[in-house]
Structures are given as structure tokens and as C-alpha cells.
């Protein structure tokens, strides 16, 4: 019989019963503290990103506004606020104005269920270092992410621009594809923790972090959070090379700033959620606990949480400076043909192993046979891709040299057409091969 997580919790570990007892001024203080924390995190993330990418690309980065350029993000925010707010002619004004608000608001709401630390004393009141908690707190993050998608779609549709509309369609397809795989990566965590509340999930990792027991789920979440955030290498909704700027092409001033704010807050929220679900949340690393027993009490856990949070933010920045943008078909293939099937198979495996362990079976043999099954599936997948690639290479390539110049929509004739001559503006007659024939 499994013991509830609340019974296993230490005296300082928050549970669902710890919430809903704070006075109104403490609740308001928590909300204000989370809001200020997110705004400061955005400003600092922008500075760190530009400095780190500058160092990786042998550039200086911002170093003029304030000491070491620390005020560059604030200067950019003031500049956006003072710019002229342009609303193009023909747009749906109501939706055009509300869409950035719909994008930014869920980003703030999602962070309310993230635990920063254990129960502490604030002006004589014992309260958890967390805004609030729910029996289905993790699902709140998924719900807010879905609400943000509506804002992106409405931004693209209300702009009455083909580029913005394409960006909105890309946003919808990308978020749906990767949100399904992200939700599936949470299922194994729910099975091990026995709860969907974030405080209960952190309490369940008191002995072992879930990144050790559920490494495949962790890897799937890391890939899906990159697609969910819409940043490089998965910034297809913006696509400056082909759709100018995507959903925010027609936006300027504070409306564009709200979209920019939501992007960096989502990056912090995804990093904090990964820390909570897989890296023990606010709990100190194992080596620290063995040396210092009080590492998980008081205000010290806030430090461990911040270190893990900024490690993931640095990971976001590192990928942006390293990887190029992927093709859209590769993005969809990774989401639908790799991550979702793998997540479904992993959930079945985890549920089967836990069921067999509850029935008293030898887990060593179960683990061995599970590893053999996973290896077999991976080998079959690799063989299928190799066979499929060979079939694609054997397909006959059409001979474009025999095609008519006007067929196929090409504005120029084939490269090896021997009798094509043209006279340029300078009077030089050149062939398609670029060899000058003299003047007429």
C-alpha cells in the first residue's frame, strides 16, 4: 500500500493543506513579489543573453547603458514605450489591441504555482514560499500555454497581413504538436509522485530526483520546451527570412513589448517547471545535504532554486547561439513522429513496471527485458529510416535540360541551353553560361 505524499513530507515541506490560510496582505505581497521577480528576470535574461551570445560570437555585447550594460534592457523598454504606436489601416482594432494582452497575461499566471522554497516565517506568519497550489497545478500551466496560443492566432488574424497570418498558423501547429508531447512527459512524473500538485511533486523528490528515475521524460520535456517557447532553433512562427516577422510583423511600441515580455517570461516559466518536476525543485543537491543538514530549511532553498532556474535559462541562450533554425517539416516530424510515439511507449513502460513492482515481481528481470525491448524498437526505427532513405535516393531525377524554358514556372531557361543569347543594358551579348560574345 502506498503512503500518501503528505505523510512523507517533513514539517517544513508545504502540502495542499498549507495553502489558503494566509492573510490578505500576505497574499498580495506574494503576488507582487512574483510580478517583480518576473520583470527583473526578463531584464536580466535579456542582458545575460546578449552578453553571452556576444562572447560566443566574439563580440562585446551591450556595455554602454549602465555598468557593464546592465541597464540596456531597461533602456530598450523605455524606447519601446516612447515609440509611436502604429495601427495599420484595415485591421480589426479590438482584436488587434487585445491579442498582445492575451499573450502576456497567461505568462504571468503560470508562475503562481511554482514553489520557491519550504515553509518560512514572514512577520510571524508561517507560509510556504509559493503563490498557491492546486490538486491539478501542473495542468494550470498547460491551460495557460493554450490560452497564449489564442493570443498568437488572434495577432496573426487581426493584422490582415499574409505574413502575420502565416505566423499565426505556424504558432498553432507548433504549439499543438509540442504541447501534446510535453503533457505526455508529465504523466510519468504523476505516476511516481502520486499527485499533480507542484508542492507534492517536490516532496516526492526528497530522496531521489525524478531526472534520475525518469530520464527519458526529462529529455522529452527539454525538447518540447524548446518548441513550446518558439525560440531558436524553433522560432518558425517569426521566420524573418520567409515571413518577415511572423505574428508580430504589424506591431510596434508597447504592443510589441508585451509580446517580447511574454517570450522571456515563458522561458523562465518553462525552466522553473522543469526544475520543479525533475530536479527536486527548491531542494539542495545531494552532496550539499550530506554535508549540511540545514540546506533545505529557511531561505537557503531559494538559492538552490535560482541556480537551477538560471542553469536552464543559460541552456536556452546556449542553444540560440549554437543551432540554426530547422525546417518546418523537420519541426513537425520531430513532434509527431518521434516525441509523441516515444512518449506513449515510455508511459506504457513506466505504468507496466510500477504495476509489476506492486505485484512483487523481480524488478531486475523487468528492467533487463524493458531495455531489450527499447533497444529493439530503436534498431527497427533506424533500419526503417535507412531503407526509406535508400528508396528516396533511387527515385529518378527529372531531366530539366529537356524541359521548355516556360514550363515549371522558372523565370530563366535551363543552364545548358546552347542557343540562348541576350543583350544586357551595357550592350554586351552574353550566353546563359556567362561568356561575353561582344557587342552588337
TrEMBL record:
<dbReference type="InterPro" id="IPR001694">
    <property type="entry name" value="NADH_UbQ_OxRdtase_su1/FPO"/>
</dbReference>
<comment type="function">
    <text>NDH-1 shuttles electrons from NADH, via FMN and iron-sulfur (Fe-S) centers, to quinones in the respiratory chain. The immediate electron acceptor for the enzyme in this species is believed to be ubiquinone. Couples the redox reaction to proton translocation (for every two electrons transferred, four hydrogen ions are translocated across the cytoplasmic membrane), and thus conserves the redox energy in a proton gradient. This subunit may bind ubiquinone.</text>
</comment>
<dbReference type="Pfam" id="PF00146">
    <property type="entry name" value="NADHdh"/>
</dbReference>
<feature type="transmembrane region" description="Helical">
    <location>
        <begin position="208"/>
        <end position="226"/>
    </location>
</feature>
<feature type="transmembrane region" description="Helical">
    <location>
        <begin position="24"/>
        <end position="48"/>
    </location>
</feature>
<feature type="transmembrane region" description="Helical">
    <location>
        <begin position="366"/>
        <end position="387"/>
    </location>
</feature>
<dbReference type="GO" id="GO:0048038">
    <property type="term" value="F:quinone binding"/>
</dbReference>
<keyword id="KW-0874">Quinone</keyword>
<keyword id="KW-0812">Transmembrane</keyword>
<keyword id="KW-1133">Transmembrane helix</keyword>
<feature type="transmembrane region" description="Helical">
    <location>
        <begin position="94"/>
        <end position="116"/>
    </location>
</feature>
<dbReference type="GO" id="GO:0003954">
    <property type="term" value="F:NADH dehydrogenase activity"/>
</dbReference>
<feature type="transmembrane region" description="Helical">
    <location>
        <begin position="334"/>
        <end position="354"/>
    </location>
</feature>
<keyword id="KW-1003">Cell membrane</keyword>
<dbReference type="GO" id="GO:0009060">
    <property type="term" value="P:aerobic respiration"/>
</dbReference>
<comment type="subunit">
    <text>NDH-1 is composed of 14 different subunits. Subunits NuoA, H, J, K, L, M, N constitute the membrane sector of the complex.</text>
</comment>
<comment type="similarity">
    <text>Belongs to the complex I subunit 1 family.</text>
</comment>
<feature type="transmembrane region" description="Helical">
    <location>
        <begin position="302"/>
        <end position="322"/>
    </location>
</feature>
<feature type="transmembrane region" description="Helical">
    <location>
        <begin position="264"/>
        <end position="282"/>
    </location>
</feature>
<keyword id="KW-0830">Ubiquinone</keyword>
<dbReference type="GO" id="GO:0005886">
    <property type="term" value="C:plasma membrane"/>
</dbReference>
<feature type="transmembrane region" description="Helical">
    <location>
        <begin position="136"/>
        <end position="157"/>
    </location>
</feature>
<dbReference type="InterPro" id="IPR018086">
    <property type="entry name" value="NADH_UbQ_OxRdtase_su1_CS"/>
</dbReference>
<dbReference type="GO" id="GO:0016655">
    <property type="term" value="F:oxidoreductase activity, acting on NAD(P)H, quinone or similar compound as acceptor"/>
</dbReference>
<keyword id="KW-1278">Translocase</keyword>
<keyword id="KW-0472">Membrane</keyword>
<keyword id="KW-0520">NAD</keyword>
<feature type="transmembrane region" description="Helical">
    <location>
        <begin position="178"/>
        <end position="202"/>
    </location>
</feature>
<protein>
    <recommendedName>
        <fullName>NADH-quinone oxidoreductase subunit H</fullName>
        <ecNumber>7.1.1.-</ecNumber>
    </recommendedName>
</protein>
